[in-house]
Amino acid sequence: MSKRLLASLSTVSIAIALVSLAAVAVAAQVTVPAAKQTTAGAEKKWTPPRTAEGRPDLQGLWRFATLTPLERPRELAGKQVLTDEDVANVEAEVAAAKAERGSRRTRITVALDPSTDAGVVGFYNQFWLDQGTKVVGTRRTSLIVDPPDGRLPPYTPQGKKKQAALMEARKRNAGPEDRSLGERCILGFNAGPPMVSGGYNNNVQLLQTPGYVGLLSEMVHSARIVPVDGRPHGTTPQWSGDSRGRWEGDTLVIDTTNFRDDGIGAERPELQGTDKNLHLVERFRRVDADTLLYEFTVDDPTVWTKPWTGSMPMTKTPELIFEYACHEGNYSMTGILAGARAEEKAAAEAAKKVSK
User: Fold this and answer.
1) Which of 55, 66, 75, 195 would bridge with 20, disulfide CB 3.0–4.6 Å?
2) How many domains does the structure of the chain reveal?
3) SS3 172
């Protein structure tokens, strides 16, 4: 299964002393070998293979995890790219931690060290973790390229209210709807759209047929079938939105709207609170034989004061897609809700004693 990574989507840090890369949100910090850094000149000389229809052949299995976080760490404010020395230090420290197989607490990752999670039900050991080894080939300090500071835009007043509602729902646990889509095995945290490095299963398979492009994400085996024949968007709201594709030269552009208005259950932390106003544009361009450049722009005026854009190379891999049977043995939902009911019962009994 190629080293799947179960990282907390909110706590993992890459604390590297020489780079000051500390306390980074794990939302996009997961890893995979970085794509080759391709110069503009090399891109012009390389001609992508074509399908029978004459379109660039994007087919194959691509991995997209990376040590590079979604947002630039505040400690690196103003630093857009890492130096060669920075990169060497980051990757060497990750390799050392990987060699230790989580046997001790390390500076790089606390949340991924099983010794720090003893007794935590449901936590996998290091064998299943796909921590990766490389930063993105461009050496950027964030996947976000716009805004220029590499950070998510500020929330709108409504966006802040949605975040507060999410926190309350997580505490309330009145029913499964209070939990994320990932916990409910509806969508995977990195299945997209957009696809951003997540805890593990950072693989997607692209297929092309006349008039369609298929994207099969390994996480919760989520599949998107995208028409590229010019038809208009549908009107039925869907968990992953309604996608339509088009070609702009050698770039595949996928435009997605009509997301379900279920923001309280959104899985990826950076998309929590999004609603029916969410509009996503993804771009796929093959820049060499082993690299697919993936870019995405997220816009939801309900949540953010302006759109934001990320960019990430995907690396071709000869490995296979495996089934992610999320529902099999998924006792966490039962445990969470049973625990909430037990807490309510205990509170009610305590209140009775006080009233007597």
Assistant:
1) 75
2) 2
3) helix
Q: Do 216 and 336 lie in a common domain?
A: no
Tell me the sheet residues that pair with 253: 246, 283
- In the prediction, which pLDDT does 115 show? 37
Reported as a single tens digit per residue, the pLDDT across 81-112 is 888 888 888 778 777 766 665 443 333 333 33
Mean pLDDT value of segment 241-248: 96
CATH value at residue 208:
2.40.128.20
DSSP per residue, 197-259: --SS--EEEEEEETTEEEEEESGGG-EEEEE-SSPPP-SS-BTT-EEEEEEETTEEEEEEE-B
- Residue 108 belongs to a domain: no
Contacts of 125 (CB under 8 A, 6+ apart): 102, 114
CA dist 256 to 110, 225, 241, 288, 304, Å?
A: 36, 12, 6, 26, 18
Domain assignment of residue 272, yes or no: yes
Dihedral of alpha carbons 340, 346, 351, 352, sign: positive
* pLDDT > 70 in the chain, percent: 74
Strands (E), 317-353: none
Placement of tokens 């002393």 in the chain: 17
Residue 157 lies in a domain: yes
Which pLDDT tens digit goes with each residue over 113-169?
333 343 444 455 555 666 555 677 678 889 999 999 999 999 999 989 888 888 888
